[in-house]
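## retry 2 of 3
previous attempt timed out at serialization; input unchanged, resubmitting
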Amino acid sequence: MRGSDYIQIVTETIKRAWETQNTSIMEAKSLIAAAIEAKKNVFVFGCSHAGILAEEVFYRTGGLAVINPIFFPGFMLNTRPITMTSSLERIPGLGKTILTQNHVGEGDVLLLHSVSGRNTVPVEMAIEAGAMGVHTICITNMEYSRAVTSRHPSGKHLYEVCDVVIDNCGETGDAAVKLDGLEEKIGPTSTAVGTAILNAIVIEAVEQMIADGIVPPVFMSANIDGGDEHNARIFKEYKDNIFYM
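## retry succeeded, writing output
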């Protein structure tokens, strides 16, 4: 029943991340709430499996309608051969191109997810975004990142170039379960922990907006009566801040 060990590890890691990273999580929610209230834009990006977080929080029932994913075809999990994603995320110049072609501008918020925090594209995006006056947030694995060298020409890791850093409190290499008879660990935790953290940030941002007297643009399920009409009103009101339609 080692699967139960994984569930326990994930549960404990989420709790540890929430408790130890709470200050950074509150900073992140404040940046996101303030950007939405000012009709600025919010973006989420990650390469390969790290990009699952961007898919989790956009166009989602109970989620903020104005969170925009940045998807690059070469980083999606339907890329073939899939090994191409590992090569592309190391190419200098690509991060800047992706950033500048996706409506990101001064005063916006860019949340980057990279577990190792070492590869060129997310580091480059954070550096370029900062130079543009964009607020940067990263979710990363500090133990992992400190154990590996950076692949960015500056030698810096993602946590060294972002305004707000949130540690997912995972293990080096991400996988967390060791089985007898198998050298490699299995059971990566970053997706489960990252999505929990990110959804918690969204909830905190929505609560902040309510406290500030703003009606948050939160999606209803399209499968609930009235959901389509509710969402259509949000699309109309925030048409200048939604780029995935």
